[in-house]
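Quick one:
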Amino acid sequence: MTNDKQTTETPWEGSVIIGLHKNTTPFSFEQIETQKRTLIMGPTRMGMSHLMRQNNAKMDAPHE
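Output:
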């Protein structure tokens, strides 16, 4: 279900995003998505992919 290659390519992005999301709500998620659009692309595979698909499934497609 998850693409491990994505997290392997950018392991540092995972730490950054997970750190941000510790203190955020699903509503704040949209703001981060706009601010850190490029960063979001990688870590979506790390376990928040289900969140991203609920909020904006289109972000998953162009990154394939």
